[in-house]
Amino acid sequence: MTSRIDAIAAVIQSGRGTRAYSLDNREAEQVLSIALALLVELAASNDRIDRLEREIATLKGQSLDALREAPLDADAQKERQEALEAMQLRVLRILMDPRDGG
Amino acid sequence: MRVRDVQHPMLPQATEEELSRQRAVVSLRKLLNARVRSQNVRRFHEEGAAAFAERNSRQPQSPDDIQAALFESMGYRMWSAANRSAQEMIWMSVGEPIFRDRDRMQAAARALAEAPDRKGSLHLDPDYDPSPEIAGTDVHLQPGGYGRDDGPDDIVAGAFYETGGNVFSFGQGAGKGDSKAGVIFRLLDEEFPDFVPGRILDLGCSAGAASCAYADRYPEAEVHALDIGAGMLRYAHARAEALGVAVHFHQMDAADLRFPEASFDLIVSHNMLHEIGAEKRRRAMAEALRVVRPGGLVIFQDVDTRFAPTEVHRVEKNWDTAFNGEIFWQVYNEADLVADMRAAGFAETGLREHNVSAVSNINRWYVISGRKPVDGTPTA
Ligand SMILES: C[S@@+](CC[C@H](N)C(=O)[O-])C[C@H]1O[C@@H](n2cnc3c(N)ncnc32)[C@H](O)[C@@H]1O
User: Fold this and answer.
1) Which of A19, A59, B11, B196 is the 20 to 30 A CA-CA neighbour of B134?
2) B270 CB less than 6 Å from ligand 1?
3) Computed over its alpha carbons, how large is the radius of gyration of chain A?
4) Residue B299 CB coordination number (10 Å)
């Protein structure tokens, strides 16, 4: 069995011919394409989280809704807030980076 | 027999995460079709036409003008870019499991093809150059295209076609009961109820989904199927064996049939016309007429883009030509297929165009059928 990295590389390498662009700005089109690919990755991650939640709910003998609606305590909320800000900084770096006119 | 989402050993064993990606791509394509593409004609009328007129001091008229006017709309450009990206992701999402699992799939295919109790056969022609017209093109962006052949056991093109085809079709709103062969069975039942073919030929069979459905529907018949690529045909043959039906696969060009005159009762093609140029199409029609027996039927089924209600709708549907590697899509949309059938020698009587509904969804298909006169004399 081939590794998933080799498999993905094989798909990418086996394309032939040319590809037509639709946007006036090819860079923008590539970014759109990356964003859509991330949308697909996010959907796959959400499926994994959902699967875990179902497993845990079953293990705890709890309803799925109860598990999902369990409020975060103050410490957890603080931790999530920090994680959120860090993620937003990572994702929106280009808007703030002086080298990109931010 | 079902033709979509059929289980057999050559399907890649995708992980749950890979299946999640495939579902996400299906869903993205559905959304783009239903909510974004569906606005393109309005975008032309509300934005594109006026912007074109301002830039060119005239109204858009020719198909090229309409195309240029569509591109004046930002919404259209964004849809076009997103649609191309979603199409590439079909192949990424099915390609990863295929290449991961390729060794096992190839071994399974070889075992089925060489099984002592095999029912069908495979005839590759090492001297055949897979249709130079499309050899350099990734038709519908499928990596490596239809003619792909990576070596003696290669089945990648067939695996891509079947698994990517499922993702594509479900994104178009087709369900698991979708069947283009089913459309022809219904047409035969309705219009030719006494017609029972003894020998059937399926032109441009790809992974053989329709070919197997014919073999299943007419168990007494001898079913032959052809396509241009060895990787596609090895897969198709093994798949037919896995499903337990007898189909004889040939690497052959539809425009140059190596079968004797009057050797088939029914010749069909599903979605092949839009993949070939005008010259090849005319030769394929003439060849079909030559090898069908007097009284036999020739049926070409294809996409419904020819039924566009207005010129703007038609140009909008030409998108695939430039952006989806469907180099003959527009040629097909604009062809006079009745004239081609007549020029190929089909008599006017017995020549019919049909606009038929799909068997399990709201999509429609174009069908043109011709019957060879019983005295066998071509009329043109
Ligand atoms: C869109 S696919 C349709 C496949 C299949 N009949 C189906 O409906 O699923 C078109 C097929 O036509 C084949 N094709 C293209 N040019 C051809 C030719 N000149 N002779 C025979 N087949 C050809 C391609 O290789 C491809 O597999």
Assistant:
1) B11
2) yes
3) 20
4) 22
- Chain A hits for B37, CB-CB cut-off 8 Å, are none
Q: How far is A78 from chain B (nearest CA, A)?
A: 31
CA separation, residue A37 to residues A23, B209, B234 (Å) = 17, 30, 32
- Tell me, what's the pLDDT at B379? 45
Whether A2 contacts B99, CB under 8 Å = yes
Domain contains A76: yes
Q: Could you give the CA distance from residue B29 to residue B45 in angstroms, rounded to a whole number?
A: 24
Q: CA B116 → CA B110, B249, B260, distances in Å?
A: 12, 17, 29
Alpha-carbon distance B129 to B126, whole Å? 8
Q: What is the mean pLDDT of residues A31-35?
A: 94
Q: How many domains does chain A have?
A: 1
Question: Looking at the partner chain, which of B21, B100, B325 has a beta carbon nearest the beta carbon of A1?
Answer: B100
Residues 6+ apart with CB under 8 A from B47: B72, B73, B74, B75
Position B380 scores a pLDDT of: 41
Q: Please tell me what DSSP assigns to residue B152.
A: T
DSSP reduced 3-state for B360: coil
| pLDDT band at residue A92 using 50, 70 and 90 as cut-offs | confident
Kindly determine whether residue B138 and residue A43, on different chains, have CB atoms separated by under 8 Å. Answer: no
**pLDDT value of position A57:** 97
Report the separation in Å between the CA atom of A72 and the middle of ligand 1, taken as the mean of its atom positions: 57
Burial tier of B53 (Cβ tally within 10 Å: 0-12, 13-18, 19+):
middle
Strand order in the sheet with B264-270: B121-123, B247-251, B222-227, B199-203, B264-270, B292-303, B364-371, B352-357
Pick among A6, A14, A19, A39 to test the B interface (most B CBs inside 10 A): A14
Distance CA B268, CA B316 (A): 28
Question: For domain B1-380, which architecture applies?
Answer: 3-Layer(aba) Sandwich (3.40)
For A62, the domain range is: 25-95
CB contact under 8 Å between A47 and B17, yes or no, is yes
Q: What is the mean pLDDT of each run of 10 residues along chain B (380 residues)?
A: 85 95 93 93 97 97 96 96 95 96 98 97 94 85 94 97 88 78 95 95 97 97 97 98 97 98 98 96 98 97 92 94 94 95 94 91 91 67
User: Could you tell me the pTM of the whole model?
Assistant: 0.92
With a 6 A CB cut-off, is B122 part of the ligand 1 pocket?
Answer: no
CB nearest to B20's CB, from A1, A14, A44: A44
What is the value of ipTM here, to two decimals? 0.86
Pairing state between β B292-303 and B364-371: antiparallel
Residue A64 lies in a domain: yes
Q: Is B360 in the pocket of ligand 1 (CB under 6 A)?
A: no
